[in-house]
Design goal:
Length: 205
């Protein structure tokens, strides 16, 4: 089974590119969806988050207050590291399980959509990696429009991740989304065909 990963900083357009690849027949494993499941009501990550951050990041009904947790960790390196120490091993374990299930089902191509692919070591799952990128000002506008946050908050989120140039250097392919959607779509689909033609670019562990 081919395992192809798509990564990129917040606001880069990564998820839209992943949707285009899935439409070509890949089975999607979305790290953000895995994270949301782990932090949903009664989710497996909630006890560890409560132990690390206390009741202040929970609502009265016991549900996670995502906005409050985000306010605590973005811009605070130590707090973010504490959250990552809780979440990343759990997410990696769930992704490994999902990959195993897909292999058992005879799946031909799995697509990993993982924002912090290299930061978490989950690049080890993929035999080819695409970094989706866009100019910082474009990313800021996208984040502000999508998440209804200030420019300063958007920048804090961007700077909480690896610099774009680091991720680009580590990836096997780089795709910019700085063009109108129709052109980005053509570029993405052309790249997908190239990835399939090239075959695996790295060993999978």
């Amino acid at each position: 089974m081919r395992v192809i990963a798509v990564t990129g900083g917040i606001g880069s357009g990564k998820s839209n590119v992943a949707k285009l690849f899935v439409a070509q027949g890949a089975a999607l494993i979305d790290a953000d969806a895995v994270s949301r499941a782990l932090t949903a009501p009664n989710g497996e990550a909630l006890p560890a988050i409560r132990a690390a951050f206390g009741e202040a990041v929970f609502q009265a009904d016991g549900a996670l207050n995502r906005a409050e947790l985000g306010a605590k960790v973005f811009g605070d390196t130590q707090a973010l590291a504490s959250l990552n120490a809780v979440m990343h091993p759990m997410i990696a374990e769930r992704i490994a399980d999902k990959l195993q299930s897909l292999r058992g089902e005879g799946c031909a191509i799995a697509l990993l959509d993982v924002p912090l692919l290299f930061e978490t070591g989950m690049d080890r799952f993929a035999d080819a990696i695409v970094c989706v990128t866009a100019p910082e000002e474009m990313r800021i506008r996208r984040i502000c429009r999508r998440d209804h946050v200030t420019r300063e908050e958007a920048l804090r989120r961007i700077h909480s991740q690896n610099p774009a140039e680091v991720t680009e250097r580590l990836a096997d392919y780089v795709l910019s989304t700085d063009a109108p959607y129709a052109l980005t779509r053509r570029r993405a689909l052309s790249l997908w065909q190239q990835i399939l033609a090239d075959g695996p670019r790295r060993p999978v562990s």
